[in-house]
Amino acid sequence: MTLRLxxxxxxxxxxxxxxxxxxxxxxxIMADDVGYECFGAYGSKQYKTxxxxxxxxSGVKFTHCYSTPLCTPSRVALMTGKSNARNYTxxxxxxxxxxxxxxxxxxxxxxxxxxxxxxxxxxxxSAGIPAGHGFDTHCLWNTPITExxxxxxPSLDRNGKLxxxxxxxxxxxxxxxxxxxxxxxxxxRPFFAYYPMALVHTPFVPTPDSADRDSKDIQRNxxxxxxxxxxxxxxxxDKLEELGLLEKTLVxxxxxxxxxxxxxxxxxxxxxxxxxxxxTDAGTHVPLFVRxxxxxPGGRVLDDLVDFxxxxxxxxxxxxxxxxxxxxxxxxxxxxxxxxxxGKPRAWHYxxxxxxxxxxxxxxPYTNPEVRYARDGRYKLYGxxxxxxxxxxxxxxxxxxxxxxxxxxxxxxxxxALDIMPEHGAKIPEERGRxxxxxxxxxxx
Length: 445
Hints:
By secondary structure, the chain is α/β, with parallel strands linked by helices. It has two domains: 22-338, Alkaline Phosphatase, subunit A (3-Layer(aba) Sandwich), CATH 3.40.720.10; 349-437, no CATH class. It is built from twelve helices and 17 strands. It has helices at 11-17, 50-58, 71-80, 84-87, 101-107, 171-185, 218-242, 281-284, 311-319, 335-338, 405-419, 430-437; strands at residues 25-31, 60-66, 111-117, 137-141, 157-158, 161-162, 191-196, 249-255, 264-267, 270-273, 285-286, 288-291, 300-307, 349-353, 371-375, 379-382, 387-389. The strands form three sheets. Strands 1, 2, 3, 4, 5, 6, 7, 8, 11, 12 and 13 form an eleven-stranded mixed beta sheet that branches. Strands 14-15-16-17 form a four-stranded antiparallel beta sheet, covered by helices on one side. Strands 9-10 form a two-stranded antiparallel sheet. A hairpin with a 4-residue loop joins strand 16 and strand 17. Helix 6 (171-185) runs parallel beside helix 7. The protein starts with 10 loop residues before the first helix and ends in an 8-residue tail after the last helix.
């Protein structure tokens, strides 16, 4: 077998990937704009998510998974395993030459596919096409050739050509069918299927299962969209079981950021307003469920911190792939914990956030000044010096005073994390960062 590689692979790379028991498959599903508060597995009684609840109950549920506050930054971190401080260039862009998890799998002989929301075509700071980032085949919305419709009568790009669709065609069903067909076609070889969903992003419109297909109630429609997301995850598990692949496939579900700010949810008696775009808990605390019967012991809840940069090294570890001669990743594998071992959980995670560095209109929704912060499971320290107790103050309205032994100890720990990470984005002109950080930190409203 001849592979076109960007670097020389050590012999054990392929040996680990194609061991006696055969390589594993991976299905990674990422919903769009839905926080942890919208799932029964975390205690919600407002949303209907039986398949995801079952996935959490029979697999592993993480209570502290954090994305960046917005879609593009999360996608870049997820796909590359690096902090946005190192490789983020602009909104809607993934820089040319960035090594992704799809590159990792394709180089190891996996079939690779992506379907759903791309949003990385960007501009002159972006490589653009999915094939340039390791995917053999794709069915996507938000590429250079698509229009804005993503749900009913969608505008979709299938391998570089616009699809012919009907008025009653529903985009999420087309994406799902595409990936399920891909899985069936490649059931005799290892595959990596990445599904960055269009659900549950605006516009909040009825789904095929909605009781009222003309509903304008955004909260009701959003709840229906969450339910349809759950249904789609169930379709993947059902197909894998039908093909006899469930025990050979690592299935992961997460989301790219918190829920939209026009939505609110009740969880454990507390009303949580969505805070997409803001680096609060309600903007960054996302679900994470992982299942692989027979390999990942189920019925467990893990409080370990998980950062979006952790996904690439975790997938590499799970598949036994050890890419060499690559730039240092910021992520840390949580595969040992998934297997039931102690592993090396994070003591903190770091986030750099500057989603639209070339837009000066900071009042525009989802356009924030450059900020960076380090946090653990309870406390968060910004580069500005503001420290928050997120357990007592999840909306970050009352910075802790600098005095006090407990505050001092946590400051020292989190400041140490800030000190080893870049102050400004490496791919963003320094004057942009200086200008933005000179502004007062906005209230996340």
